[in-house]
Amino acid sequence: MALISAATIITSLSLFHITLAFFFLTNPQTIADQTLVFILGEAMGLPFTRSFDTQSPALSFLAAVLFAVGITDLVSCSLPEQISQYHWGSQAPVRLFLFGSLAFYSYTFSDSSPIYAAKTYSASAWGEGLKNAVVFTWAFVEMITWFWVFVTLREERREMAMRIAERRAAEDDRL
Predict the structure, then answer these.
(1) Tens digits of per-residue pLDDT, 64-89?
(2) Which residues 6+ apart lie within 8 Å of 149 measured at CB?
(3) In the chain, what is the greatest distance between 2 CA atoms, to the nearest angstrom?
(4) 73: which residues sit within 8 A by CB, 6+ positions away?
(5) Measured between alpha carbons, how far is residue 49 from residues 14, 138, 152 in Å?
(6) I want to staple 99 with a disulfide (CB 3.0 to 4.6 A). Which of 62, 72, 143, 151 is the partner?
(7) What phi and psi values does residue 125 have, to the nearest 5 degrees?
(8) How much is the pLDDT for 123?
């Protein structure tokens, strides 16, 4: 049995999204100044971006999206157990892959990547905004969390299957 249930992890992540939305809307600099962002950014050699210094329409849109995702995930956590297992069992691997891909892209194609050690780095036209410490940290934390949810869901699914088998055996014994 897992120490923390998948529903608790998802609820915590949903509240984290709502908190991020609040800070992106009110004071985005507080997110960029977090110690975790600094440590992971420096460890990976990712640049610190100044685009989080002031509020912008793009950050307000991001806040609205994070708020909507947080609320909808909270509502999805309140589903019955079997439906929730099915829903999150399909969502967790997809989100794990997406955030893993974003973290991979954010680091691998940045100017500090080992790929460009022998060559000169040239900035791309469309993805430079994703190659910074804030995006990498967010994607990395999401990837770790969704992996944790995925592993916990698999363990809970096994326990649920055993409970269903025990119920069926008890019903067969009564008949």
Answers:
(1) 999 999 999 999 999 998 899 999 99
(2) 6, 9, 10, 13, 88, 92
(3) 76
(4) 10, 13, 14, 17
(5) 26, 14, 35
(6) 143
(7) -85, -20
(8) 65
Residue 51, amino acid: S
- For residue 124, give both structure tokens: 């791309």
Residue 55 DSSP class: -
Q: Which two tokens stand for residue 149?
A: 């949810």
Residue 117's φ and ψ, nearest 5 degrees, are: -65, -40
Q: ∠ CA(50), CA(54), CA(60), 5° rounding?
A: 115
Per the listing, tokens 């067969």 go with 172
CB burial string 126-137: b at 16+ within 10 A, e below:
eeeebbbbbbbb
CA distance 73 to 65: 12
Closest C-alpha to 66, from 23, 17, 9: 17
Q: What are the Cα distances from residue 86, in Å, to 24, 131, 153, 160?
A: 32, 34, 10, 12
The DSSP symbol for 109 reads T
Query: Mean pLDDT, consecutive 10-residue segments, the chain of 175 residues?
Result: 88 97 94 92 87 90 97 94 92 97 89 68 72 92 97 92 89 81
